[in-house]
Amino acid sequence: MTRRYDAVVVGAGHNGLIAAAYLARAGRSVCVLERDAIPGGAVSTVERFPGYRVDRGSSAHIMIRHTPILDELDLYRHGLRYADCDPWAFAPAETDDDEPIVFHRDLASTCASIERSCGRVDADSYARFVAQWAPRARATMAAFGHEPTPTRFAATFASSGLRTPTARESLLDRRIGALSSMSQDMMNSGDALLDRWFNSERLKAALAWFGAQSGPPTDLPGTAPMVGFAALMHDIPPGRAIGGSGALTTALCAALAADGGKLVTDSPATALRRRGDDWEVVDTSGTVTTARHVIAACHIGATLDLLAAGGHRADQIDRWRRAIVVGNGIGIAVRLGTTALPAYRNTPSGLPAHGMHSGLGLLTTERAHLRRAHAASAVGELPARPVALPMGFSALDPSIAPAGRHLVNVWAQWHPYRFADGGSWADRARTAADGVIAEIDRYAPGFASTIEHCYIQTPADLESELALPAGNIMHVEMTIDQMFGWRPHPDLAGRSVPGAHGLVLAGASTHPGGGVTGTSGRLAARAILHRTSKRRGLGTTARTIWHD
Questions:
Q1: Rounded distance, CA 335 to CA 406, Å?
Q2: Comparing C-alpha atoms, which of 195, 40, 209 is closest to residue 125?
Q3: What architecture is the 2-45+245-324+475-543 domain classified under in CATH?
Q4: For residue range 242-272, what is the model confidence (pLDDT) as tens digits?
Q5: Domain boundaries, given as residue ranges, for the chain
Q6: E strands in 277-338
Q7: How far apart are CA 18 and CA 28, in angstroms?
Q8: CA nearest to 390, candidates 355, 426, 348
Q9: HEC string of 462-500?
Q10: pTM
Q11: Are 223 and 211 in contact (CB under 8 A)?
């Protein structure tokens, strides 16, 4: 059996669905092939326990609401709704003598909380920190929205708040000096940045844990922007999709279908092969889907496997594979059905009805805690104390849990995929989860007694269920050497594969990386639409989709 389309998308993660939705909206015939029975990949929600809607991957959507994607694809018309996570984060008190640090969308309220818990000096410093880093974070998001060419990247940051009215002769010098200083800041470690701005180790630890959500610890070079991204949360906070993270996928599938696109699940691709001017995508049933363009929105390792099966040069594939760092896992997820949300110490009055539970729980008081956990994972051991990030979003959206019950999603770092002693995750999953629950109990005594259901996703589980090799939720490491024009490899950073004309790369393996952003899918679709529109003389039609 053979099917033919203008484009085939391999992988129905959110980036693949976004790419397909743009193509369908532009009038192209498009088919999405997905290996799993459930579309969405790590942006999907299922019933793990009776009456609970449990996320399989992401829970908070931090970046996609800073892009034009939701409006361009009109996803709100297809039922997507978000609740603001406000407060967007909190660092609870570890002792009865401490005050929680609560990060509100409102900067003044955040500074007031920092003043109560850490002092006036750090509160004032935080206000200045946000003023300096918000323009930089906006510039980073703007850079993420385009292919990472050196000139475009430099131009984006050169215009990020560096226009100071002054004499023409000194304006250039000032801009060059400011840009040089900023570029040094951007290449710095997150820890060095925090030490420069703040005194309180509690505040520095909380912001470091937020910055470490991409995987790399904040003592590494190039992690300062990950910490500085916190400033952008005062523009638009993280969003919780009503009904679960998979509500984004549901809306994308509806948008795709409305514009005539096709989604085929339970259809793992086995090979990508070139036939004349077309591509053939072969699946496990033997069905061949033919198209002028293919978007590979799966893991880069899976894409290389498909190309190898289709006869692409083995030496080239081997060279790329050896240079792309997938790593040894990042962390585990623990999904908990409970009779109550965590009762954190000294929760301040005057909060919304959902309290602090709309936010990301930054459960750490010192960066040494983060460093020890990462060091243990780096040598193939379980951390003595994992670093936990609980999210009690049933406080925002009661529909995800039965009446009188709650759902707490917990992400915890760092946990290795491979153990140094050769042990298996099957034997250690419960021990690791108990360690995560103990961390919540440290800040909310008695929480463990409220747990009725527990579902554990180890790095091995993340690999087997969500096709994330080594359990790396970002596909490949988010270190500075594998970002921007180096992601996932300099040869592949242009979203194309040498010797494979018409194949376009998308997904977390490509620029701008992991997380729920969708930008990679948008850029992949844009690349195809611009090429085909020029060939067909339809350039204006394709560009009407975009807001920029």
A1: 11
A2: 195
A3: 3-Layer(bba) Sandwich (3.50)
A4: 999 999 999 999 999 999 999 999 999 999 9
A5: 2-45+245-324+475-543, 140-234, 327-471
A6: 278-283, 288-296, 331-338
A7: 14
A8: 355
A9: HHHHHCCHHHCCCCCCCCHHHCHHHCCCHHHCCCECCCC
A10: 0.93
A11: yes
